[in-house]
């Protein structure tokens, strides 16, 4: 069953964000992930203020998603994340096949 990473991001430092994004994208691909949403325009229809950036990544399974998050490849990206962006990160399982 697919699993998803939903990330709501506020960029604090542009150069660091680009470094994070480049390294993270390589790690995501290496662990079988693919971007479904990567910072496109968003309209808030209900609820609070609009987020600056929304990213949604699909992985083949929650196991694979967690392997990516704990990987040494992604750890390199996290070194940049701490100073380059604030975010809310959510892991969610997809629907079972019908």
What's a quick, concise take on this entry?
The protein has 98 residues and is an alpha+beta fold. The protein has 3 helices and 4 strands.
What is the element string, with H for helices and E for strands? EHEEHHE
Helical content band: 25-40%
Radius of gyration: 14 Å
Measured by DSSP, the beta-strand proportion falls in: 25-35%
Specify the structural class.
Answer: alpha+beta
Count of helical stretches: 3
Mean pLDDT: 93
Cα distance, first to last residue?
11 Å
Choose one word for the global shape. flat
The low-confidence parts are none
Adjacency order of strands in the biggest sheet: 2-3-1-4
Tally of extended strands?
Answer: 4
Oligomeric composition of the shown chains: single chain
How many strands, which pairing sense, and closed or not: the largest β-sheet? 4 strands, antiparallel
Overview of the molecule:
The chain has 98 residues and is α+β, with helices and mostly antiparallel strands. It is 39% helix and 31% strand. It contains three helices and four strands, in the order E-H-E-E-H-H-E. It has a four-stranded antiparallel sheet. Helix 1 runs antiparallel to helix 3. The termini are close together.
List the helices and strands and how they pair.
Layout: E1 3-11, H1 14-30, E2 34-38, E3 53-59, H2 62-69, H3 72-84, E4 85-93
